[in-house]
Amino acid sequence: MPRPGVIVTQSGDRGAALAAALCDRGFRAEHLPLIETVPLAEAVSQLAEVAAGDDAWVFTSAAAVRALASHAPAVARLQAAPAAFALGSATWRELRAVAPHAVHFPGVRGAQEFAERLVEVCPPSLGFIFPCGRLALEVLPEELRRAGRRVTEWTVYDTVLRTEAADRLAERSGEIVVLFSPSAVSAIAAHPSSGRMFAPGRFTWLPFGGTTARALDHLGIQHLEPPAEPSHEALIHHLETLYPLGA
Fold this sequence. Notes:
Number of helices: 12
Oligomer: single chain
Shape: globular
Radius of gyration: 18 Å
Mean pLDDT: 92
Number of strands: 10
Number of domains: 2
CATH architecture of the largest domain: 3-Layer(aba) Sandwich
């Protein structure tokens, strides 16, 4: 039996590369970026001015890193921070390009586990700066505040649904749709055809990480378990395990 179709919604070259890698492994993969991120230059500039120098920076999104990377004063504040942390290897790779001292925790899945590790390794006096997107979930800051930690959230990019891509998805059915962020879930939910797209049995939804899985859970959308870690390699292995050739 041939492997199923997979729709890769991650934008940019990485999404295209993942679709190509899945095709090489016998999946009928298509690259269909559903969202695009728009850096908020004024917000990034303001963050560089007001960020406390003794706070650690935490990132759950590569888009947040990219929003800061083109603004030299923000990068300088980040590099001077006592610590910087990333959730997931992909975000960590982006972050290390501008902050070589950045740390990530292998095996940590989702914002709740990320918050738990941050509380474990950071002294109680250390506050956190959380650059994020406009549609970001509140899980990380809520968990840190529940542990008594100080968190400054700062929106540095917006997430915009690519209407033409969502319209194309609304006309499809039967494939596995890989979602890469809670923002993508929120953007689809805001589309006029969201009820049709999220209808039971129309698609098989595969979240890239635990935070995206919880965003689907919040809407009551059934989905596959995410891969063991949020990386392309783990995602490919996960799909090959779920859909072995010849099965």
